[in-house]
Write a structure and sequence with these properties.
Blueprint: H1 2-18, H2 24-68, H3 78-82, E1 85-91, E2 96-98, E3 118-120, E4 130-132, E5 134-141, E6 147-157, E7 162-170, E8 176-183, H4 197-201, E9 218-220, E10 231-233, H5 239-253, H6 259-266
Parallel strand pairs: 9-10
Antiparallel strand pairs: 1-2, 1-5, 3-4, 5-6, 6-7, 7-8
The protein binds flavin mononucleotide.
């Protein structure tokens, strides 16, 4: 039974090979073979390169944290320099740290998609939809072990994209040391001027809240009534990205974000 079938198969293969190269069956065969080989190469490369990509992502995040804290030195090994930071997972609602997650592996961006760990935002000025109830923050201590700065992640929508970044706040919970974004897709020369060192340098020394504890930090063309201490100038020609940055900073520094943690910092609790 199998011999005649083999003979039949051999006959079909021989006919296929003998056919002229421009037949439909040969063209389809070559097209499908090329697609299969190409997809195998692409998926093998994706699998092989994934650990490298993850390592590069981590390195990039660490560089950004070092930069926003003013500690980045290209001559110093990133992992060694990053040892200066103590990552902790913060419960936003209580403003306290939690040991429920390992800060080295907890992914607070992914946690925003987990209904157990996040909440849907009704009032959503940063246009992020859902917010993780826990965020990984980075404590920077001085040589004597006293708290020096905290580095807090923040994100929100600009004009074309979600901007992801960090704000460095002094140990008093109110003075800003710096802010920078590590990922966004705003237009170069317009919204992407958030990366311009001259624009970023404005954040240093600005304040979040006034003496009465009201959040005053504002990113806009004109200073808020509270004064220049709370004012970051708008990005020229990029009113919508400016509004996005203003909204996301107010959101994360406000009641829905780090307010309770900042209260505790101001009270000298850490
Ligand atoms: C191709 C293109 C890209 C733009 N990219 C941005 C951007 O990244 N951020 C932004 O706020 N506005 C961007 N704009 C401009 C906005 O459409 C809008 O005109 C601008 O935000 C208004 O700012 P202004 O009031 O300062 O002129 C872009 C416009 C064009 C045509």
């Amino acid at each position: 039974m199998s011999e005649p079938m083999n003979a039949e198969n051999k006959g079909a293969i021989a006919r296929f090979l003998a056919a002229p190269p421009d037949t439909v069956s040969k063209t389809l065969f070559v097209a499908i073979a090329v697609c299969l080989v190409a997809s195998m190469i692409v998926s093998t490369a994706a699998v092989i390169l994934r650990p490298t990509q993850e390592a590069n992502k981590l390195r990039d995040k660490q560089i950004n944290i070092l930069q926003v804290a003013g500690l980045y030195d290209p001559a110093i090994d990133i992992s060694d320099a990053f040892e200066a930071f103590e990552p902790r997972v913060l419960d936003l609602e209580s403003g306290e740290f939690t040991d429920a997650f390992d800060p080295a592996t907890f992914d607070d961006i992914a946690a925003a998609d987990d209904p157990e760990l996040s909440r849907a935002l009704e009032d959503d000025p940063a246009s992020i939809g859902r917010q993780s109830r826990f965020r990984t923050v980075y404590l920077l201590r001085d040589d004597a072990g006293a708290l020096d700065k905290v580095i807090l992640p923040l994100h929100g929508y600009g004009l074309w994209s979600t901007l992801y970044g960090f704000i460095a706040v002094e140990k008093n919970g109110n003075d800003i040391f710096g802010l920078q974004f590590y990922s966004h897709a705003e237009t170069p020369g317009l919204g992407a001027e958030v990366d311009n060192p001259r624009w970023k340098s404005q954040w240093n020394g600005k304040r979040l809240r006034d003496e009465a504890g009201t959040l005053q930090i504002t990113v806009a063309k004109t200073a808020p009534p509270a004064g220049a201490d709370y004012h970051i100038d708008a990005l020229a020609g990029a009113t919508l990205t400016t509004a996005g940055v203003d909204n996301l900073v107010k959101f994360w520094m406000g009641e829905e974000g780090y307010a309770r943690f900042l209260d505790k910092l101001q009270a000298g609790e850490f």
